[in-house]
């Protein structure tokens, strides 16, 4: 973790101009993909082999993670993955119009989601089913989007989880505005009676992918959050692929390093390490709540499945890459760590799996029985205020439909 | 309207004042900010400078930098953060410097601002006002004289209005801010500081609801409908026509989406003729919509087809040529002549 001094502007003679020649394409790609455990590039607390690495900087952010809490994180990830696989299968069976799989990104989503406090707000894109789960949004409430019965109608205020945003990058600016509001309302940088940071201070987290970092809205979100010191954590899940485009199609330098250009800290975390994601996100949220302004987290992970169920990854990436990432599985490393440490036995693992299966079965039953939305729903809630014009359109259409009913044609 | 328009704080504004449109907007914004501390103004140069047209003059000095935000120079950022602020419970009023610069923000307007309420079945309200100076006649360079309002009227979920006189400017901006739906507020920039239009504004009582058209001159021979900067052109044309013994009824549309065409239908049923006037190009425009709806509702009353006097279907020309592009008094009268000759 670089020290705060490194956020200052470089001295003359230290800047880019003073450095060596431009990196070659190979060097660029190597830099983008530098994820060696223990390397300077990535924060990791639990290796793919399940070994716990001590971190002077981040251990204190997970000092409360006892065996029970770790089992909880494992259970979260297993349930989320199982629900994801069930939804994927239901799409294949024609029960969902499309599914957006999160396979491989469970640690990034559960770790960061569990770092949030109830008063915080999360702005997702459209793959954050795991974050939704940690915010108490029932998986069933996500299904409407993918069965095309609604656009996502959960209670965003109650859950602190904003509606999904499908246009790439839009939500980053919306989150910046929301975080500015938190700041304007005086919800950052407070202390309690004893001079300690207030437990009611707030922050916002916004999720986006590596592809989104090319969008103007993401750049503008970085600019706005920086100049207004907004309490916003930019959580970039770099899953290596924007549909068929690799990260080198979006950037010449590791994405977390972009933060420096905007004047706030950037950090790369092992996105397949739930403990590191939890710790680093807690740290970043704390920075925000203290009033220090935004932080960029690049969660370095991998999209183990397709972009969506309409995609065919075999056309653009090598199966070798998938095999390499299988060894970095976010759930398996926790399982190994729990087993080796004696924190969980086979009976417990079996119980979690049974619970996940029941969770999925429940989801399936719900999905198959989802009611069709009534036709008047087309016209509902376009405006907050009454709309006589739309009411008239609706009534005219419903009476037209009623004609079919009377003629026995429906 | 979700709530009655709040009166400005006693003593803040004299009950009757002679105002230009620009000053009326300034005082309207001030009244809205005094009535509700969740109302914030944001945009490029709106603080110390008071906006390039000085519409926000003095607001930052009196309300501070957290109520009047000088933003970075990016329109998507202005609209996108306003959406987030509205989700948080604020009532942001965005200023776009010129209509030609709104397009970087078009994505946020059409994808988020217009659709969040529908997407969430009413759980998220986005009471954002986007103020847009629009229209030509100021001798400007490219991108500073356009009329893109129909592009926004075509997007469900948005409301679009335009004012044409100081009293409406003062009240409509407050009513738009009070509206729980997003409102695109198109301001006739060439009339901002027009001394001819300076008139008494009653700051105690609004002249009527926001989303309503209004007959601004009564007549019997032909109906003329317009909005924003074209209303003054049509009123001047009606004055000139009266000297020749022709009686024109002029309707100020005021609301572009939703359209309030009941007064237009009622008028056309009496006059049998309609001329629609707008600076915007004619194809797929507000005047197209008016023509379609009037022939649908007033088919048996029409003595002539609905005719239009509009900007041409060209990009806005270099402003040395704008007198040709803009529908002026003569072109309005010529179009009325054609309608009368049917």
Tally of DSSP β-strands of chain A: 7
Q: How is the CATH topology of the largest domain in chain A named?
A: Rossmann fold
N to C succession of SSEs of chain A: HHHEHHHHEHEEEHEHEHHHH
Q: Let me know the CATH homologous superfamily of the largest domain in chain B.
A: Thiamin diphosphate (ThDP)-binding fold, Pyr/PP domains
Compute the CA-based radius of gyration of chain B.
20 Å
Q: What structural class results from the helix and strand content of chain A?
A: alpha/beta
Biggest sheet of chain A: strands, sense, closure?
5 strands, parallel
Description of the molecule:
The complex is a heterodimer of chains A (410) and B (342). In chain A, helix 8 links the parallel strand 2 and strand 3 (232-238). Chain A has two domains: 25-369, 3-Layer(aba) Sandwich (Rossmann fold); 377-407. Chain A is built from 14 helices and seven strands. The longest helix of chain A is centred in the N-terminal third of the chain and has 26 residues, at 67-92. Chain A has 410 residues and is α/β, with parallel strands linked by helices. Chain A has helices spanning 25-32, 67-92, 106-115, 129-134, 139-147, 156-159, 170-184, 216-227, 258-262, 274-289, 319-326, 330-341, 346-368, 388-406; strands at residues 121-123, 204-209, 232-238, 241-242, 245-246, 266-270, 295-300. Chain B has 342 residues and is α/β, with parallel strands linked by helices. Chain B folds into two domains: 16-202, Rossmann fold (3-Layer(aba) Sandwich); 214-341, Rossmann fold (3-Layer(aba) Sandwich), CATH 3.40.50. In chain B, 34% of the residues lie in helices and 20% in strands. Chain B contains twelve helices and 14 strands. Chain B has helices at residues 21-35, 59-63, 75-88, 106-113, 116-119, 149-153, 166-178, 229-243, 262-271, 286-297, 322-325, 329-340, and strands at residues 16-19, 39-43, 68-70, 91-95, 129-134, 159-162, 183-188, 199-202, 214-217, 222-226, 248-252, 255-257, 274-281, 307-311. In chain B, the strands form three sheets. In chain B, strands 3-2-4-5-7-6-12 form a seven-stranded mixed β-sheet, with helices on both faces. In chain B, helix 1 runs parallel beside helix 7 and helix 8 packs across helix 12. The longest helix of chain B has 15 residues, at 21-35. Mean pLDDT of chain B is 95; it is low at 1-11. Chain A binds chain B through residues 123, 150-153, 155-157, 162-163, 165, 167, 170, 172-182, 184-185, 216-217, 220-221, 223-224, 227, 380-385, 387-389, and chain B through 1-2, 40, 66, 71-72, 74, 76-77, 79-90, 92, 104, 107-108, 111-112, 116-125, 127, 156-157, 159, 179-181, 258-259. Chain A: One of its GO terms (molecular function) is oxidoreductase activity, acting on the aldehyde or oxo group of donors, disulfide as acceptor. Chain A: It holds the Pfam family E1_dh. Chain A: Residues 1-24 are annotated as: Disordered.
């Amino acid at each position: 973790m670089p020290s705060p001094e490194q956020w200052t502007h470089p001295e003359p003679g230290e800047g880019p101009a003073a450095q060596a020649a431009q990196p070659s394409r190979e060097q660029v790609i190597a830099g983008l993909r530098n994820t060696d455990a223990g390397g300077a590039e990535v924060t990791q607390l639990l290796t793919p082999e399940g070994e716990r690495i001590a971190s002077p900087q981040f251990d204190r952010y997970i000092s409360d993670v006892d065996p029970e809490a770790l089992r909880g994180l494992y259970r979260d990830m297993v349930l989320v993955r199982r629900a994801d696989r069930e939804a994927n299968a239901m799409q294949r069976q024609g029960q969902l119009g499309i599914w957006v799989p999160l396979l491989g990104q469970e640690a990034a989503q559960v770790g960061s989601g569990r770092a949030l406090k109830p008063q915080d707000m999360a702005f997702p894109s459209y793959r954050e089913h795991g974050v939704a789960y940690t915010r108490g949004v029932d998986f069933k409430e996500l299904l409407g989007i993918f069965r095309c019965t609604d656009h996502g109608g959960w209670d965003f205020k109650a859950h602190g989880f904003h509606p999904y945003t499908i246009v790439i990058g839009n939500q980053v600016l919306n989150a910046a505005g929301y975080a500015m509001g938190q700041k304007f309302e005086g919800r950052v940088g407070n202390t309690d009676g004893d001079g300690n940071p207030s437990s009611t201070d707030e922050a916002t987290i916004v999720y986006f992918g590596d592809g989104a970092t090319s969008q103007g809205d993401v750049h503008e979100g970085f600019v706005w959050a920086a100049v207004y010191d907004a309490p916003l954590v930019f959580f970039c899940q770099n899953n290596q692929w924007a549909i068929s485009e690799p990260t080198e199609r979006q950037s010449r330098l590791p994405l977390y390093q972009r933060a420096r250009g905007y004047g706030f800290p950037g950090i790369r975390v092992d996105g397949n390490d739930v403990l590191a994601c939890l710790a680093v996100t807690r740290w970043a949220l704390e920075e925000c709540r203290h009033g220090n302004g935004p932080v960029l987290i690049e969660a370095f992970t991998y999209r183990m499945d397709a972009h969506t169920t309409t995609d065919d990854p075999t056309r653009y990436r090598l199966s070798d890459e998938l095999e390499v990432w299988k060894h970095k599985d976010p759930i398996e490393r926790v399982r190994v760590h729990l087993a080796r440490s004696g924190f969980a036995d086979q009976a417990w693992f079996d119980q979690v799996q049974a619970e996940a299966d029941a969770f999925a079965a429940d989801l399936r039953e719900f999905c198959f029985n989802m009611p069709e939305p009534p036709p008047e729903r087309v016209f509902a809630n376009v405006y907050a205020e009454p709309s006589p014009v739309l009411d008239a359109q609706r009534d005219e259409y419903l009476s037209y439909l009623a004609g079919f009913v009377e003629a026995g044609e429906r | 309207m979700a709530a009655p328009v709040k009166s400005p704080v006693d003593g803040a504004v004299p009950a009757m004042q002679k105002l230009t449109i620009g000053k009326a907007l300034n005082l309207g914004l001030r009244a809205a900010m005094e009535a509700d501390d969740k109302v914030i103004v944001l945009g490029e140069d709106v603080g110390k400078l008071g906006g390039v047209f000085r519409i926000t003059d003095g607001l930052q000095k009196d309300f501070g930098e957290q109520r009047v935000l000088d933003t970075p120079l990016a329109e998507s950022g202005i609209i996108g953060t306003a959406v987030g602020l509205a989700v948080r419970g604020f009532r942001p009023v965005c200023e776009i410097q010129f209509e030609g610069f709104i397009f970087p923000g078009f994505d946020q307007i059409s994808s988020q601002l217009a659709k969040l309420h529908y997407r969430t079945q009413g759980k998220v309200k986005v009471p954002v006002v986007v103020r847009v100076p629009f229209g030509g006649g100021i001798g400007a360079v490219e991108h500073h004289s356009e009329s893109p309002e129909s592009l926004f009227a075509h997007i469900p979920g948005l409301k679009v209005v335009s004012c044409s006189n100081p009293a409406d400017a003062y009240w409509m901006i407050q009513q738009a801010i009070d509206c729980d739906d997003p409102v695109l507020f198109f301001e006739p920039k060439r009339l901002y500081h027009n001394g001819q239009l300076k008139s008494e504004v009653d700051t105690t009582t609004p002249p009527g609801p926001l989303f309503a058209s209004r007959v601004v001159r009564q007549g019997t021979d032909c109906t003329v409908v317009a909005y924003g900067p074209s209303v003054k052109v049509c009123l001047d044309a009606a004055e000139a026509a009266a000297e020749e013994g022709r009686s024109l009824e002029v309707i100020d549309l005021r609301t572009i989406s939703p359209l309030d065409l009941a007064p237009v239908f009622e008028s056309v049923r009496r006059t049998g003729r309609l001329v629609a006037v707008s600076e915007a190009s004619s194809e797929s425009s507000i005047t197209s919509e008016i023509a379609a709806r009037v022939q649908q509702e007033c088919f048996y009353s029409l003595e002539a087809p609905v005719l239009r006097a509009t900007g041409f279907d060209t990009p806005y020309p270099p402003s040395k040529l704008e007198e040709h592009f803009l529908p002026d008094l003569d072109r309005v009268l010529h179009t009325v002549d054609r309608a009368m000759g049917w």
